[in-house]
Design a protein that fits this description.
7 strands; 5-stranded antiparallel beta sheet; alpha+beta; two-stranded antiparallel sheet
C-alpha cells in the first residue's frame, strides 16, 4: 500500500508484461496544458472510443489508445488505478465522460476511484462522481482464477466456488 492508496501490481498474462520495453508507457498528463496538447493530437476515430488509462504510483495520469494494454501504458510498473476513460467536449472545454476500472491486467478494486479522481482533478478535468461502470474483480480461493462479479453473484464462473466479499485479486497485496 502506498501513502496514497492501495497499489496494484500487474496480475495478467506474463507474456504481455514481457513485451513492455524501457520507455514504454502512456503519455504522462501532469497538467491541463499537458492534456490540451495531448487531446489535439488524437484523431476523430480515437476520440470516438475510450482510452486506456493508468494512475501511476506518483499519482500521475497516463493515457494511451484504447487497444493498448494497461501494463504497457504503465510501463510495466505498479499503479494506483487503471481502466478506460472517454472524453467529451462541453462548451469550450474537455471533460471526463465515461470512466471505468476495466483492466483485467491489474484488476483494480472499485475503491481505486479516489486515486483516479485525484489524478483527473490535478489536470483540471471535470469528471463524474464515481466510476460510471464499476467492475468488481475477485480471485477464486479454490481455483485461483480471476473473475468479474456480475449482478452481485459472488460465484466463480470457472469452478462455482463462492467468491469473497472483499477484493483479493493479488495474493501479495
Amino acid at each position: 500500500m502506498s501513502g496514497r492508496g492501495r497499489s496494484y501490481r500487474y496480475v495478467g498474462p506474463v507474456e504481455l508484461k514481457a513485451t513492455v520495453r524501457p520507455g514504454d508507457g502512456g503519455r504522462r498528463i501532469t497538467s491541463a496544458a499537458d492534456f490540451g496538447g495531448w487531446i489535439v493530437e488524437q484523431s476523430a476515430a480515437e476520440l470516438a472510443e475510450p482510452f486506456t488509462f493508468v494512475v501511476g504510483m506518483d499519482g500521475v495520469l497516463r493515457l494511451a489508445p484504447r487497444r493498448s494494454e494497461h501494463v504497457a501504458c504503465a510501463g510495466g510498473a505498479m499503479v494506483l488505478g487503471a481502466g478506460e476513460i472517454s472524453f467529451m467536449r462541453e462548451a469550450d472545454r474537455w471533460i471526463g465522460g465515461e470512466v471505468s476500472n476495466q483492466s483485467t491486467g491489474y484488476c483494480p478494486d472499485v475503491s481505486s476511484w479516489a486515486e483516479v479522481a485525484r489524478a483527473l482533478d490535478a489536470v483540471e478535468l471535470r469528471r463524474p462522481s464515481g466510476f460510471t461502470h464499476a467492475v468488481v474483480f475477485r480471485r477464486c480461493p479454490d481455483c485461483q482464477e480471476h473473475n468479474i462479479v456480475r449482478e452481485d453473484d459472488f460465484v466463480c464462473v470457472f469452478c462455482s466456488s463462492d467468491l469473497p466479499a472483499a477484493w483479493n485479486v493479488d495474493p501479495t497485496a
